[in-house]
């Protein structure tokens, strides 16, 4: 038996009521940052355990395994009863990505329609990382299947990983992991000007507010005389606290769907610290204060020393903020894009 739990972003978690462990595993797909969200998750977990043990409770959200299979097939997922087996499942908000949590720290991911390319992208990322990492851990993949209609693969870990209760991990562990990830495809021969030109072209293609666009355009044009080299490398591009787990003293990084091999070095660092602040409802002013505080300066100095390139940290931060703005704008995350635009505008006032 399953309970269909619709999350705030319209994604769906199919909570398996087979056992208390299945309920806990199902709710691991939901990682709230706010206190309100954590309280909601606690009470929902208690409710599901009660629902499982008291069979006479009725709910329109209760579904049988057969109902789930019919529903998934109607969405064009080619699944059978052997794929489901009362496992916890997560369906993305667009209904094109399905994740099934199987036994023994193993997950199976399916992508259809516009979720096929991100799944293929993630497969490529795991291939790149194969036996080349030591500061963090990543899943091993198997049973890769790529067709014109659907992409699927399995991800597995030898050791169990779990989410931490803390908001952030120790910054040096994050920095070590991100630098190693970045260096997987590092290229130190790129001139910064070529990256700036690409950003300018991308911004010109977006339907932006005129004042904001002119502000960024003017700043990027002022950098046209810059002839320094800046390394480009592997970027996760969705590096957030909910895409990281703790595993035997190391960081377990997953969800590489948005990753690419030629990004700026500070993008993931900005993503990790700023996106959660936006989710928690922090204002533009508070985020700018965070970027300028001593604590974050310490984090940046450590990261920059490990990167061993490009001494102009302020320049890298603004360019990385622009990249994050573009990411959110193109993915329809209007609120996050709005906050990023405000942060960028506020920082550019100092230039």
From TrEMBL:
<protein>
    <recommendedName>
        <fullName>Aminoglycoside phosphotransferase domain-containing protein</fullName>
    </recommendedName>
</protein>
<dbReference type="InterPro" id="IPR011009">
    <property type="entry name" value="Kinase-like_dom_sf"/>
</dbReference>
